[in-house]
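agent: user wants the structure for Ribonuclease HII from Chloracidobacterium validum. delegating to structure tool.
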Amino acid sequence: MPSRAHPTDEFEAPLWAQGVHDVAGLDEAGRGAWAGPVVAAAVILRPDALPNGLNDSKQLTPAHRERLYVQLEAVAAGIGIGVVSAEVIDQINILEATRQAMRQALQCLPRQPRFLLLDAVDLPDIAIPQRAIVHGDARSLSIAAASIIAKVYRDRLMTALDAQYPPYGFARHKGYGTAYHRQVLASHGPLPIHRMTFRGVIPQSSFPLLETKG
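agent: tool returned. relaying tokens verbatim.
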């Protein structure tokens, strides 16, 4: 079988050639998880300083993602991160929470981008030219960069939560619906950081919510 294609600058290059250098790629991490926040990142790459090995974060090892995260912090023209909690996800649904996280990420950039490239999500209330690209994290360098930033940032948050809630194994599964996560939910019940509207999470009425340690 042919090897999986890597993202390129096919979407950025025409914009850069027109003098539109502040192109922001946006992506999220944790959209399908049962617990923890959804995290979005916005990244403006420099055309003359593109890190080698940028790819969809799901195609990279944790160590490779960490290395690229550090490289991106050093060479990107701008990085913004947005975090929306499980409580808000339950209130407004995961799609709207993802958009909210992306808006936060844009607000955290050091300057306003002139064009947005998004992974299959649009931001209709943002008055910046934009393009939603299906499988954008596997096709666009800017979106791939955002996927790495969002994934590493969220993984670090979930690892920190593992220390607060040791039985739940968040450092192992990062809040996703693994067999272990399902088993611990069945025995211990959900936490305040669980998304109660997600299928697979035990109904809140079955167990008292556990308080954060410390």
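agent: one observation worth passing along. The first strand starts at residue 23 and ends at 29.
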